[in-house]
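Hello,

Following up on my earlier ticket. Below are the two sequence lines again, exactly as submitted.
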Amino acid sequence: DVKVTQSSRYLVKRTGEKVFLECVQDMDHENMFWYRQDPGLGLRLIYFSYDVKMKEKGDIPEGYSVSREKKERFSLILESASTNQTSMYLCASSQPGTTVLKQYFGPGTRLTVT
Amino acid sequence: QKEVEQNSGPLSVPEGAIASLNCTYSDRGSQSFFWYRQYSGKSPELIMFIYSNGDKEDGRFTAQLNKASQYVSLLIRDSQPSDSATYLCAVRSAGGTSYGKLTFGQGTILTVHP
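Thanks for your patience. The regenerated structure is below:
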């Protein structure tokens, strides 16, 4: 069964802290994505990666960075957390070359920055 | 104007009725269109996708695409309380470097009441 896991379901951090959100997929997918989801705004793409060590900015990359050292793992980094980064963070993966390009989502991490 | 816009909700329908969810998009070169369902506290899951103009049916769900008018809709027949969820419209743009990148609408909350 397809699986995308995220390191934490809930996380509380202080302003200015460095925050790491981890995502792991077991489907050998090449594409991985980080979104944030806020009420009334839907899912907004932060960064995506189409291969190991390759990354592309999404629609809202400011204040975030990513790392993909291994195919199965995609990390989102908040260099200096701020209260406006309080949100639900969703990781997803998909396999290129397939007709549907279906994205499989992880359970999400609800991050609160105080 | 948002790239992908969904009809404002929340939408409330009685059990057994038809629920109609609409989505418009701005990129005329968009190729693929997806509907995701997201239950409260859960991650999105793909329920329908459509590429060609016209209708595509899957059980009680029908996706409709009109590229000339740049809209896509989802009809749910014989709505059940278990259909109560947020429905997200997603669009994949044209371009060889999109890597399966999707742009999501803000979501429409559907409530089916007994």
